[in-house]
What we know:
Layout: H1 5-9, E1 16-21, H2 23-32, E2 34-39, H3 50-59, H4 76-82, E3 95-100, H5 106-112, E4 119-124, E5 143-146, H6 151-164, H7 170-177, E6 191-196, H8 206-209, E7 212-217, E8 220-228, E9 238-243, H9 251-260, E10 267-270
Parallel strand pairs: 9-10
Antiparallel strand pairs: 1-4, 2-3, 2-8, 3-6, 4-9, 5-6, 7-8
Helix pairs in contact: 3-6, 6-7
Amino acid sequence: MDILADLKREKPSNNTLYHYCSLENFMSIVESKNIYLSDVTQSNDYDEISWVFKVARQDCYEDNYPLHTKNIRETAENRHSFIRNDYHEYEGLVYGVCLSKCDDKLSQWRGYGDDGNGVAIGFDISMFAEDFCCPDNSLYPNGLYKVEYSREKLEEVISKLFNEIEPHDAQKGLLKIAPAFKNPSFYEEEEWRFIYTPKPCPNNCDEANGIKFRLKTADKIKTYFDFPLFNSFTNNPIKEVILGPKNRTSTSCIDLYLNKLGYKDYKVKKSASSYY
């Protein structure tokens, strides 16, 4: 049973999801015809991944928490002992790209679109096919998810999860659902994310060889994987490009640029926001 089936089944109404980025990153994406799948623990949410584990640890001791166990050994204390506090071990394990169903939202421009100077790229969701992920890596999260912000929903999923697994598998089980849940304070982002978890393998295997590195800050290197925009699931990955409210590039320039690079059947428009 896929515990996250509902979050993976739902699709945006117009089959388009938006990635807000700087103009420099936009050019890097469209020219390389790849989008970065970055380590999700390196996001601007310090509770990334760890949010699920924190809730699970807290709720293990709540009197009203519905722990319907299969085995008498599966006590709250037993589960709690397997849910560790050290979340740094997940660095470099789960990768993804953050998307939003919002096509022209001021908070997104401010937070992710270079304070309005950037671009929102509208991607055809067909390109984010789960077949890209490892078919034999079902123990870890893979695929396109609608992010859930409700703590009540998270507690419900944790309860179902704990009903299906042994206590010693609690850590792996929580990791599988962790990328699909975020702290409720981020609900405004209406985020979706495409998650890719490389299959654990020796350093010389194909997947390990696919990992790349770039400078995140002056004192830290960041790992990532390239995800191809053009794949067997779509020939037209970009459906729309929205120029931020402070972006001074003309729509005709972007149109000429994308056309020269081989993109087709897309729209280009300016943001309707009056932010300056």
